[in-house]
Write a structure and sequence with these properties.
The chain is mainly α. It has a two-stranded antiparallel ribbon with strand order 1-2.
């Protein structure tokens, strides 16, 4: 063998890749997790329809006012920093829309414990509600108050109302009734009537999924589709039933029962009265 010429073993050894150190492996894992987590957060924010534009508009004085109101009225259940307690969930990241809906409809603060929060006269003024929403929105990104959805509501657009009626029947009527009159659920819970509810609160309910309601983010229903559903509900609210008395829009079963009890009952009673007069 000539001196200076590498053996086959030496050649194969020189071609072997060097093993990465444990610190390099940990670093790669950290980078991968950071990229994956950042991508997921971005996608989730878009899917949930999170819009921080209205949160940015909130002034610091409004946030400070909201913090004072929160600590005086809400911290008992939700914690001083809205981190949550055994009595109430964390509000970090729920966004302004959830607070505006819950407080604006009087559901919060809760009057008593029960299957679900009851609708009542709001405890706070509109300005105070907006301040509370601004404070909670400052704690973490979440769905903002959907001004762009309510601005697109149009009950005079027949195509929008028709499309909204179809979307409502597919996604909402199983709980809220096809006419938005509400209905009973299980364990003492219920889907409330949507008649008389503001456009903003209906949109916020779809975006935040309060209590037993599922969340309809922009992947499930686009902002335009939400506006179409609200257009249909407002059309039903402002137009009387063409068939006459709607019997609270409870549906064909209740309407049939009404006819059997009162209609047939009246006929039977009248027949008996005629028979007694013939005697």
């Amino acid at each position: 063998m000539k001196i200076g010429k590498k053996s086959a073993f030496q050649k194969s050894s020189s071609r072997r890749p060097k093993r990465r150190g444990p610190l390099a492996t940990i670093g790669l894992l950290a980078v991968g997790l950071a990229v994956t987590g950042g991508g997921y957060a971005a996608v989730a924010q878009v899917a949930n329809g999170s819009d921080t534009s209205s949160e940015a508009v909130a002034t610091q004085s409004q946030v400070d006012e909201g913090e004072q109101l929160f600590q005086a009225n809400c911290s008992t259940c939700h914690g001083l920093n809205a981190q949550g307690t055994v009595s109430g969930p964390s509000l970090v990241g729920v966004g302004a829309a959830a607070v505006d809906f819950q407080v604006g409809t009087g559901r919060m603060p809760m009057q008593m414990q029960g299957p679900q929060a009851q609708i009542k006269t709001p405890q706070f003024t509109d300005d105070q509600t907006k301040a509370l929403a601004a404070y909670v929105a400052s704690l973490g990104s979440g769905p903002a108050i959907p001004d762009e959805v309510t601005a697109a509501v149009d009950t005079a657009d027949s195509e929008k109302v028709s499309t909204g009626a179809e979307l409502f029947r597919i996604n909402c009527a199983m709980c809220h009734n096809v006419a938005g009159a509400g209905g009973a659920l299980t364990e003492g819970k219920y889907a409330p009537t949507l008649m008389g509810v503001t456009e903003t609160h209906i949109a916020e309910a779809m975006m935040t999924g309060p209590q037993n309601m599922p969340v309809f983010n922009d992947t499930n229903l686009t902002p335009d589709q939400k506006a179409e559903i609200i257009s249909y509900l407002k059309y039903v609210e402002t137009n009387k039933s063409p068939g006459g008395e709607d019997l609270a829009s409870l549906g064909p079963v209740s309407e049939g029962l009404f006819i059997w009890i009162f209609g047939i009952g009246t006929i039977i009673a009248f027949t008996i009265w005629l028979g007694s007069r013939a005697d």
